[in-house]
Predict the structure of Glutamate pyruvate transaminase.
Amino acid sequence: MSSTPRLKALNIDNINPHVKAAKYAVRGELAIKSEEYRAQLRKLKDEPPTPPAENKLPFDTVISANIGNPQQLDQKPITFFRQVLSLLEYPNLLDHSDVLLQHLDYKQDAVDRARWLIKEIGSVGAYSQSTGVPAIRKSVARYIEKRDGFPADFNNIYLSAGASSGVNTLMHIMCANDKSGILVPIPQYPLYTATLSVLNARCCPYYLDESTGWGTDLETVRKSYEDAKKDGTDVRAIVIINPGNPTGASLPRSDIENIIKFAAENQLVVMADEVYQTNVFIGEFISFKKVLRELQRDNPGTYDHVELASLHSISKGMVGECGHRGGYFELVGFDKEVQEQIYKFISIMLCPPVTGQCCVELMINPPQEGDPSYELYYKEYKGIEDGLKVRATALYEAFKEMEGVDIGEPQGSMYLFPTITIPEKAQQVAKEKGKNADEFYCLELLDATGICVVPGSGFGQKPGTLHFRTTFLAPGTEWVGRITKFHKEFMDQYR
Ligand SMILES: Cc1ncc(COP(=O)(O)O)c(C=O)c1O
């Protein structure tokens, strides 16, 4: 027997290199380290050693401000949603609706909605149609019609396991080979660059303009497009995240119109990631679908060929049901044969989670004024919305006061993305440790405070600039003070 250790059939040198090349910082090194700290603190609490030992960490809670995951940060689920879901999971409860109504605070509309969904679906334990339950897709179409004032066809609605799965599907369909490219805003949510890496396709970055509140400048987009074409890239689509992640910016109507016109001129698919459509503090959300339909109405024939895919999710807004994995995308103007291939592609995964599909129904068709559940629903929804604004403002005010930090007013989504100026000495130390300067800053912040944020390099940033992204989801504002204290000490140490 040889004593040389045998290589595993699968080893780091023979797995898919495109997976290895993909980067996804929101769940990267910092997030892993923060989970280790959390486990350490939990162990100390759950299995106190004898004799008692001191917590060696300089903090007693970990704050996961790295990802938009509201219920991980103590956001309570909306009661109406969970009441309906509980009945779908265990329909026998419906045989005791008197108990539900009289003793468990269920309201008649929750019971009725559950009965209707069960009638349409059967059991949530069964696979649904690949594109999702038709009755829910019809509800989504009605929601879009009401939102935009233009018809929507439920045959073009595809329910998905979160928006991520929708993006994955569309990218698989659009990227035909290693010359296929997609215009992606920078900074961006790294789902886009990571998926392009996995598909061995090209990311064609266009920079958002920080000086105009992270605006989308058409000339910059055009230049990126032309540069990509010069490199031999077959540019297939343009991604827009509106409202933005990590920037929070909402696009004004004129920018949406310009992008649609640009896409029409250059035969690009428009991929509008609209998962933050209800998280808007400044400006208003206008959907790409609405602007496209208005352009088509006002300019007969000119924009009829535009292909638009727009995505939404139950993970964001005031819903925050990330773990249920629900979302949808709507296709407009797509070729019928392409849609058949999309159908086949999603069928390979069978169907999105059926309870996630039901959450989509509840999100887009919540209790209305006059319904028995409305009062509580509104109170909970408003409470979450107001809490987000209060925390965003507290963070913003704190960041404004911090040395070398530049930040625009919170505009929406769930994030702030300040610019940081890192002293030369700290940049040198970062280099010695093989880290980007913003990564080093965020690691030091985590080690000192237990707060996990994501370095700007994880989203892309203009060369020469440094940022970090934090969510404003964590309850209370005490942790904001931890950041300001750390920052002052960091600056003093490296000044
Ligand atoms: C812009 C953007 N798109 C898509 C997603 C994915 O969301 P989902 O949970 O619906 O997959 C996120 C998640 O943070 C996001 O920020």
Notes: The pocket of pyridoxal-5'-phosphate is lined by residues 68, 162-164, 189, 191, 241, 245, 273, 275, 313, 315, 322, 327 (CB under 6 Å). Residues 147 and 274 are 13 Å apart (CA to CA). The longest helix spans residues 374-401. The radius of gyration is 24 Å.
